[in-house]
Amino acid sequence: MKKIIALLLTLMIAIGLCACAGGDTNRPASEKTPGGSGNNATAPNGSETDPGGETAAPATEKPQEQVAGSEGLDVTEYDENCVIERIGTFSGEELVIPSHYNGKPVTSIYEDAISNNTMVSLFIPWTVVSIGEDAVSGSEKLEKVTFSEGLIGIGEGTFGDCKAIKNVTLPSTLEFSGRSSFSGCSGLEEVVLLGNSSLENYAFYKCDSLKKVTYTDKSGRSYSLKSSVFEDDGALEEIVFSEGLESIGSFSCFGCTSLKTVYLPKTLKKVDARAFDNIGSLKVFYAGSEEDWNNINFANGNDLLKNADIEYNHK
User: Fold this and answer.
1) Residue 14 phi/psi, 5° resolution?
2) What is the pLDDT of residues 241-257, one digit of tens each?
3) 227/207 Cα distance (integer angstroms)
4) Do residues 125 and 8 lie in contact, with contact meaning Cβ atoms separated by under 8 Å?
């Protein structure tokens, strides 16, 4: 049942992506997803200009390159897309998920699909929009994961207990990371979120080495933290939240005894019970005014946050 639901979600997303590409069904699949931008300046009318100031022809969209994947993976093929079903006979150190199989985009990695004891690095291509529950969990030798723009969802427990991962950069397209998605990644030291993705319960629970978390998105897209996202991350020293954060769930930073610095946006409306309990001596850089701060709904158990050293109107 989980696979059927995941497949339906993946197909819906894939159809939506194709529709956004302009509706040209005769174009190759690799050309239906926007590519990178060029280095030329853009005129107000959207066309490119050369150094002499003359208006050139409109830029042609650059297609993404197809990625040849590792051999041995079990791939299931459907009418419009493909999914990674199992690790198959793969037993190497560098696992590359293919972007296409028989000309069709690989849009999903199924639950429990690629956990193994040999993988040191993992590459996720731009066609993959979802990674299923526990898909990579327990891969204790995994040190590096490369995510591409295009990923929308990470499932429950997907990277749980991958103890050798040290750094994670999540793409701007990511909208949510599921419950316990990176919990128990005891070697993880830094997380960078390029987009305003919501984190579900226990997403980074008990990441014993995690020191810094940074949201970098400036779009203002709304997002939230659910309960216990960073609970018991005893090494965590700094969290930088971007504009768009609306709520912080209960126990989100409970037990972060090394936490010293938190950057909070003006968009924050609610902090649930004991979200910032049992933490260190805190300095808060808040984007709003003191009046804005006093209008935030603080539940019980957040006195260490409310009474922190606060710098208002921080830019």
Assistant:
1) -65, -40
2) 999 999 999 999 999 99
3) 15
4) no
Report the C-alpha gap between 102 and 86 in whole angstroms: 17
Place of tokens 């998105």: 217
65-68: Cβ within 8 A, 24+ apart: 65/30, 66/30, 66/98, 66/99, 66/100, 67/96, 67/97, 67/98, 67/99, 67/100, 67/123, 67/125, 67/126, 68/96, 68/98
Six-digit token string for 222: 């709304």
Q: How far is CA 158 from CA 56, 93, 140, 155, in A?
A: 47, 19, 13, 5
Q: Are the beta carbons of 193 and 215 closer than 8 angstroms?
A: yes
DSSP code for 63: B
* 196 vs 171: CA distance, rounded Å: 9
Give the pLDDT confidence of 67-107 residue by residue, as tens digits: 999 999 999 999 999 999 999 999 999 999 999 999 999 99
